Amino acid sequence: MSWSKMSLYNVLSKCSALNIDLKNNRDFFILVMRNYGKLQLNILLASCQIIIERYIFLVKLIRQPEKFNAFLLRRLVC
């Protein structure tokens, strides 16, 4: 079975055991997990993939974003 955005949204919205809030958007939907401090996950379906995005923190909280990006890239590139 392949998932569409609406079929996955409908299944998740009917599952009361998950303790979640769902917000539907045109291109994606937002799943808020109340059991984990209102953890927000942005869910996007693209062809054969389900992409889940989670912001760790806001860029505006970083004093020197260029240095931070360089720091991350040096450690993530193999």
From TrEMBL:
<dbReference type="InterPro" id="IPR019231">
    <property type="entry name" value="DUF2170"/>
</dbReference>
<protein>
    <submittedName>
        <fullName>DUF2170 family protein</fullName>
    </submittedName>
</protein>
<dbReference type="Pfam" id="PF09938">
    <property type="entry name" value="DUF2170"/>
</dbReference>
